[in-house]
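Reviewers of the previous submission asked for a worked example of the structure-prediction workflow described in the proposal, so we include one complete record here. The input consisted solely of the amino acid sequence. No template or homolog information was supplied to the procedure at any stage.
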Amino acid sequence: MICIFCNKECKNLNSLRQHEIRCKLNPNKIEIVSNFIEYNKKKDKKTNKSLNQFTKAKMLGLDIPVVSDETKKKISNSSKNKKWDDDRKQKHSLAMLKAVDEHPNSYSANNISGRTKSYIYKDSLNNDVKVKGTWELLVAKFLTINNINWTNIIDEKITYEWVGKERRYFPDFYLIDYDIYIEVKGYERKRDLEKWKVIKDKLLVFKKNEINLIKNNNFDIFIILNNKRAFSSVG
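From that input alone, the workflow returned the following structure tokens.
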């Protein structure tokens, strides 16, 4: 099976036909245009970074590739087996700090709660915010019923040190008129104590005892708030 244009030998008739219609010497050859020509034109010329198949498809307006469960499992197992060296850990840590600084609301009002169920609730500024777990929901309702203006969108940059690195701290509630924070905690760890001490003069920690008092309508928050505010002004 020999190509009539370039004399290339092909294995069978089908192979010959496919070659001849694309042969460079064929004056009527089929022009093959890559799907990613437009992508290459739009690619960042400064970094010249190649993007993955999902980003390419999005850029070209194509359907997003479907990844099978088997492939997902392979990717997951591959990622688990990769070891991070100190340089990569440092870069990741800096990237996370930058992300928190640039998008603090993503790590305060809308932060990820792990396995704890989140509830959408209106703060005193009429924002839809997330509260984590039934205890925080109880406190949010308690503050609202008592006409105490609150939010959990934390604008103040509160930092503490842990394992030799500077971290951001987002308390659970901020009482706007009192300039006081509330942390709702079922149990405390050493790391929590490091967070709390940086704003100890303006922080209230609600644990199981305070939650039970609220549930039983026996918690007078105004006495505590006024004492805390008076203490902070003296300090």
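The first strand starts at residue 118 and ends at 122. We consider this example representative of the routine output the project will generate in years two and three.
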